[in-house]
Amino acid sequence: MTGAASPNFREERLSRRSFLVGSAAGVGALGLAGCVNSDGALRAEAAKIYGPMPNEKFPIPATDVSKVDPKYFRRTVAYETKAAAGTIVVDPRNFYVYRVEGDGTATRYGANVGRDGFLWSGDAYVGRKSEWATWTPPKEMIRRQPEAAKYARGMPGGLDNPLGARTLHLYQNGAYTLYTIYASSEPDTIGSGITSGCVGLLSQDMIHLYAQTPVKTKVVVLPA
User: Fold this and answer.
1) What secondary structure, in 3-state letters, does 18-63 show?
2) Core-most of 47, 90, 147, 175, by most CB within 10 Å?
3) What's the pTM?
């Protein structure tokens, strides 16, 4: 990603987490049929959904589900909306992303969102999609944090790349907004505001959403 809306970059160290902080599984699939109410059982089921993905270009390790509040695990929920099936709705106030299924339900994913001062709302659409995208820090970030200059020509895709395994690039009126929905390998960031306006899902969730999202899909970002 380029531009001011890049995932954040923490000044004290150059790492994937630095970049992030400074710059449909159904109800049954997660064992959420109403009879499971212990965190232990819930996390055990979630571990199956968020297991390793060894066949990726850069093999993805299992998510440490102990670092994620269970309310942010992927699940199917009742969701009444007039939006067409396939529409993506971002709810930054509650740290959720929804994929509308068109039958009164949606697939809901836990997310990290923009920190104070970087929140935005409005309608957009997926203008392009990327797998293991190159990340380029914006000029503003390089001026603020000169150590990022080493990636001025782009950081190749990989596990340490801030954009992760999959990226949906958001556009408005034919122009790239510089905002994305991206894959995060930082489970403890889910449910928090840490980015410069981008929206992060756990890698396994992002791959799940990405596979069902064609270019031109409408994205609605609700007010925070």
Assistant:
1) HHHHHCCCCCHHHCCCCCCCCHHHHHHHHHHHCCCECCCCCCECCC
2) 90
3) 0.83
